[in-house]
Amino acid sequence: MSDTFKTGRADPLAASSLDADAVRAAYRRWAGVYDNVFGAISGPARRAAVAAVNRAPGLNVLEVGVGTGLALPLYRSEKRITGIDLSAEMLDRARIRVREQSLSNVDHLLELDAEDTGFEADRFDIAVAMFVASVVPHPRKLADELRRVVRPGGTILFVNHFAADGGPVWWVERAMAPASRALGWHPDFTIDRLIAPDDATALVTTKMRPFGLFRLVSMVNPA
Ligand SMILES: C[S@@+](CC[C@H](N)C(=O)[O-])C[C@H]1O[C@@H](n2cnc3c(N)ncnc32)[C@H](O)[C@@H]1O
Fold first, then answer.
1. CATH architecture of the region 2-220
2. Most exposed of 13, 87, 106, 155 (fewest Cβ within 10 Å)?
3. Which Pfam families match (predicted)?
């Protein structure tokens, strides 16, 4: 089910209250329970995103905000994976998963900031950010950094919950917004905080199960 690029409404009340330290603190708390709390509900969208990675041309994959590594066993063995995350505790879980499941195509798991990775330009064929865009302090910086490190013509994928465009769900999201810092993400996150409304280069968004709660955003990196 594809639909056209549609921006959410800008919400000045929901300006970012998540900085890197707040992210680290939140995911230090979440690390031990993350898979049990979020693994199932996020599973279909994660599988769809990794299937898109597996279909995309090229082998070098950057997964930003790799977390506990729930996606790592899903990549085709030919894909070479570099995972990065701000949270040492989430990465510890990912490393255990790699070791226990002998995931030999995971080349690196690094404690790095997805907004400023330090990788050389055009280093990757594909970048994917699953449930990360509404967590990073500056989503546009994340998008710019992924464009920088992915080669021209490469693939950039985001999976995320984007705020409803009105209706009761939107009110619930707005009500939850002040808890962003404790939650570790912005419930009222709109797509225009990630990608400028006039920057719809080869952009496809697809609603994901369950209930269209998550969207897969797929872009071809402009040359
Ligand atoms: C909701 S979790 C998603 C984890 C994983 N992608 C998944 O699908 O389960 C968000 C992850 O993004 C990480 N994160 C947030 N901001 C980041 C940043 N600026 N750089 C790298 N990782 C970041 C958090 O530490 C956390 O592990």
1. 3-Layer(aba) Sandwich (3.40)
2. 13
3. Methyltransf_11 (PF08241)
CA atoms within 13 A on the CB side of 88: 2
Exposure string for 50-70, b = 16+ CB within 10 A, e = fewer: bebbeebebebbbbbbbbbbb
- E strand spans, the chain: 2-3, 60-64, 80-85, 106-111, 124-130, 150-160, 204-208, 214-220
On the question of pLDDT at 34 being above 70, the answer is yes
Domain ranges of the chain: 2-220
Which of 91, 135, 149, 158 to mutate for ligand 1's pocket (most ligand atoms within 8 Å of CB)?
135
User: From CA 118, how far away is CA 199, in angstroms rounded?
Assistant: 24
CA 75 – CA 52 distance, rounded (Å)? 10
